[in-house]
C-alpha cells in the first residue's frame, strides 16, 4: 500500500471506530436504563425488611441482606456484554487507525507529531486502560462514561484538530520522543480514568446528601455505582499508577529529549512549566492521601485540579502560547482541514 492509501485507511478506521464507540455508548445507556426500571426503590427494600420470611425470621434481623444491591437483570447483563464487546471492537479499529497513521508518513514515523495524532493515541490508551482494569475493578459502572468521553473527544479531534500527514520536524527525530510520549500518553490515560472516578465520587456524594435530605428513594445509575469508599479507592490507585510514569515522562525523558533537540535540559518553556505544575498537583494529592489521610471530596477536588492542569498543558498551551513555545509544532493550523475518507 502507498502512504496515501494508509492515510485514507487511517481516516476510515477513525470513522469506523467512532461508529462502534457510539453503538457501545448506546448499549451501555440501555444497560443502565434497564437498571433504572428494574432496581427496587429503597422504600420497597425497607418495607420488605420488616416482612417475615419463611418460618418467621424477619429480614430486619439480617441487615446485610436487606442492604444488598439487587442482582443485575438478564436484559441489563446482555446489554452490558454487548457494550463491552463493541468497545473491544472499537478499540481494535482504533489501534488500526493509530498504526496506519504512522505508516502514512514518508518516511514512516511514530503517529504523534501533532495534537490530532496525540489525541487519537491518547483516547486509545484511555479505552485500553479501561478494558485492562474492567474485570479487576468491576468497571461496568464506568462504561458509559468512558465510551461517551472517547466518542466526544474523537469527534472534536476530527472536526477541530485534524491535519494531513507530514514528516516530523528535525527536533522530533529522536528515540527519546518515542519514550517520552509513550510514557506521557500512558500517564494521561491513567489520570483521565482516575479523574472520571473522582467526578463520579463528587456527583454521587452530592446526590446522596440531597436524596437523604429530601427523604426520596434511591434508584437508577447513581444508586448502582459502587460505594463512595470504592470510588475513592479506585481513583487513588489509578492516580498512584500514573504518577511515577508522569514523573518519568515530564522530569526525566522530557529534559533528556530537550537536551538532544535544543541543547538544554530546561528552558522554562510554557509546556515544560505546566508539565511541572501538573506534577506538583498530583504529588500534593498523593502526599496528602498518604500522610494526612485526605480522602473523599477533598482528595477528589485536588485530583480534578491536577486533571485540569494536565489537559490545559495539552490544549491550552498549544492554543494560547503556541507561538511562544518550542512545542509550537503540536499546535493546530489556523485553517481547518477536512477529513478525507475516500482519498
SSE pattern, N- to C-terminal = HHEEHHHHHHHHH
Poorly predicted runs: 39-70, 334-340
Strand order in space, largest sheet: 1-2
Integer-rounded radius of gyration: 23 Å
Helix content range of the residues, please?
over 70%
Largest sheet: 2 strands, antiparallel
The total of helices stands at 11
Number of strands: 2
Q: Could you say which structural class the secondary elements and strand pairing correspond to? A: mainly alpha
Mean pLDDT: 82
Q: What does the overall shape look like?
A: flat
Number of domains: 1
Report, as a whole number of angstroms, the end-to-end distance: 13 Å
Strand content: under 5%
Features:
mainly alpha; 72% helix; Cytochrome c-type biogenesis protein CcsB; 343 residues; flat; 11 helices; single chain
How would you characterize this protein structure?
- This protein has 343 residues and is mostly helical.
- It has one domain (3-330).
- The chain has eleven helices and two strands.
- The protein has helices at 3-38, 42-49, 63-67, 74-103, 115-137, 143-160, 175-214, 221-224, 228-262, 270-292, 296-320, and strands at 52-53, 57-58.
- It has a two-stranded antiparallel sheet with strand order 1-2.
- A hairpin with a 3-residue loop joins strand 1 and strand 2 (57-58).
- Helix 4 packs antiparallel against helix 5 (115-137) and helix 7 (175-214) crosses helix 11.
- The longest helix is centred in the middle third of the chain and has 40 residues, at 175-214.
- It starts with a helix and ends in a 23-residue tail after the last helix.
Amino acid at each position: 500500500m502507498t502512504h496515501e492509501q494508509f492515510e485514507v485507511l487511517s481516516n476510515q478506521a477513525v470513522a469506523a471506530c467512532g461508529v462502534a464507540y457510539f453503538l457501545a455508548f448506546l448499549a451501555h445507556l440501555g444497560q443502565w436504563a434497564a437498571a433504572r426500571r428494574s432496581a427496587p426503590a429503597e422504600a420497597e427494600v425497607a418495607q420488605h425488611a420488616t416482612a417475615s420470611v419463611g418460618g418467621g425470621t424477619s429480614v430486619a434481623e439480617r441487615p446485610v441482606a436487606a442492604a444488598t444491591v439487587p442482582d443485575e437483570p438478564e436484559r441489563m447483563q446482555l446489554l452490558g456484554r454487548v457494550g463491552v464487546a463493541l468497545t473491544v471492537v472499537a478499540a481494535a479499529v482504533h489501534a488500526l487507525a493509530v498504526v496506519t497513521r504512522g505508516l502514512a508518513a514518508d518516511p514512516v514515523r511514530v503517529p504523534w507529531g501533532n495534537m490530532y495524532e496525540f489525541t487519537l493515541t491518547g483516547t486509545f490508551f484511555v479505552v485500553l486502560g479501561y478494558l485492562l482494569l474492567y474485570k479487576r475493578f468491576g468497571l461496568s459502572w464506568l462504561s458509559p462514561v468512558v465510551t461517551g468521553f472517547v466518542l466526544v473527544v474523537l469527534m472534536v479531534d476530527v472536526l477541530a484538530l485534524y491535519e494531513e500527514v507530514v514528516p516530523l520536524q528535525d527536533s522530533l527525530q529522536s528515540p527519546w520522543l518515542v519514550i517520552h510520549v509513550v510514557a506521557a500518553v500512558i500517564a494521561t490515560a491513567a489520570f483521565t480514568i482516575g479523574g472520571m472516578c473522582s467526578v463520579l465520587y463528587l456527583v454521587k456524594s452530592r446526590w446522596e446528601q440531597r436524596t437523604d435530605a429530601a427523604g426520596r428513594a434511591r434508584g437508577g445509575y447513581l444508586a448502582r455505582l459502587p460505594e463512595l469508599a470504592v470510588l475513592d479507592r479506585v481513583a487513588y490507585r489509578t492516580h498512584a499508577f500514573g504518577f511515577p510514569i508522569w514523573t518519568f515522562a515530564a522530569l526525566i525523558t522530557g529534559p533528556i529529549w530537550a537536551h538532544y533537540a535544543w541543547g538544554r535540559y530546561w528552558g522554562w518553556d510554557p509546556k515544560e512549566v505546566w508539565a511541572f505544575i501538573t506534577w506538583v498537583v498530583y504529588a500534593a494529592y498523593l502526599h496528602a492521601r498518604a500522610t494526612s489521610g485526605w480522602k473523599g471530596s477533598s482528595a477528589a477536588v485536588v485530583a480534578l485540579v491536577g486533571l485540569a492542569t494536565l489537559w490545559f498543558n495539552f490544549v491550552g498551551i498549544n492554543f494560547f502560547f503556541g507561538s511562544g513555545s518550542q512545542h509550537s509544532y503540536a499546535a493546530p493550523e489556523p485553517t481547518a482541514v477536512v477529513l478525507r475518507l475516500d482519498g
